[in-house]
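Subject: two folds for Thursday's group meeting

Dear M.,

Sorry for the delay on this. The cluster queue was jammed most of the week, so I only got both jobs back this morning. I'm pasting them in the order they finished. Each block is the input sequence followed by the predicted structure tokens. Could you check whether the formatting survives your parser before we put anything on slides? The first protein is the one we discussed after the seminar.
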Amino acid sequence: MKKITVDAKAFAEAMGKVSRVLKKSAIPILEEIAVSVKDGRCTLAATDMDTWLMAEFPACGDDLSFVFQRTKDVMKACAHFEGELSLILDAKGEKGWRLELRHSPLPPMKIIRSAGP
């Protein structure tokens, strides 16, 4: 099992930027976003074979690479996250794997009320 943690807002913004190149294609992989994490940097990439778009931002955790399936659904979910976003890639034998996204919201803010003078 491999895990990374990223800022949810940075992840959603990067997905939005690189997804601009995605369009319906006879080649299904061209409708998806690739994710690569190495040496504390997460890179998202997409292409239509004419144009490549990439976005990079900080990440903590293991080095890993994968391609989303159903990128558009992932983007819709990520648009609602704030704080830390953990991506956990769990290999299920030789033929399968599972990706889990866990959202940790920002800690609650302290509201300090003071009595007037």
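Second protein, same layout:
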Amino acid sequence: MLDTFVSFDRKLRLPDGCSMADAFVRVEKKAGVKLSRCLAESEVVAESILLNGERVPLPRLSKTTLSDGDEVSVLSPLAGG
């Protein structure tokens, strides 16, 4: 799992028909983040993927096509007391 906080707040140019899974691969390359490993190793992170504010289950990433203006977020798990 990632042991540091990474912020990737950029717009990406993606080809038509790009899936969320494709976009994550591009973010990994541009930001140098092992996002796919983090998603595979952490159920908490895998359950906190959002598309335009709506949760997207991990199995649907490759089937969910992005459109112009979509916003994808992966929320960081929080802990505290």
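Two things I noticed about the second structure. Residues 20-74 form one domain. Confidence is low (pLDDT under 50) at residues 1-5.

Cheers,
T.
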